[in-house]
Amino acid sequence: MGHARIKPKHAVTRQHHWYSHWPLWVLFGVFAALISISFIQMYRSEGPQKSDIQAVVLAAGQDLHIDPAELKPTELHLFEGSASGQKVKFIVRRTQDNVVHVSLATCRACYRSKNPHYVQKNEMMCGECNMPMRSESEKGAPGDTRCTLPEIPHTETAHDITVLIRDVLAQTAKVSRKG
Predict the structure, then answer these.
(1) Are 127 and 141 in contact (CB under 8 A)?
(2) Using an 8 Å Cβ cutoff, are 179 and 109 in contact?
(3) What is the pLDDT of residues 163-174, one digit of tens each?
(4) What CA–CA distance (Å, rounded) separates 177 from 179?
(5) pTM
(6) DSSP string, 72-124
(7) 56-177 homologous superfamily
């Protein structure tokens, strides 16, 4: 016997198809999914938060009674009232000149928009133009009446501010008719 190589009768050829390495593809897919999920979670946690404060939810049909001493100047108080299955958010705020304003928490533009209003740094922000909104009678209210907050009638005594839920719903009905 010499040193000659032994040749197989049939030539062996290796064909590599994508499916021949399926375990590597599965591992790659799982790894890519985990990276995607971590980026989404990071983006959501660092993304802009729409509202800085939560609304205080009143019981169905309940009127709001609040002590005026609890209202600090420029601090916004957000409430959600409901009656007859309709939910409405409204705000109570004392301005620097010590006047209490009660208004809907939406302007006419936001009411019809897909971009809802939100609270940021104690200001009601318009979801359409992203500018601060003021009550209709408040000093410094914008000239464009689309971005003013419709006022809600309320009664005020030395120890109580009362906002009737029927007045809130009536003002909402007016806003929905105007436009």
Answers:
(1) no
(2) no
(3) 999 999 999 888
(4) 6
(5) 0.66
(6) -BT-EEEEEEEETTEEEEEEEEE-TTS-EEEEES--HHHHT-SS--EEETTEE
(7) Rieske [2Fe-2S] iron-sulphur domain (2.102.10.10)
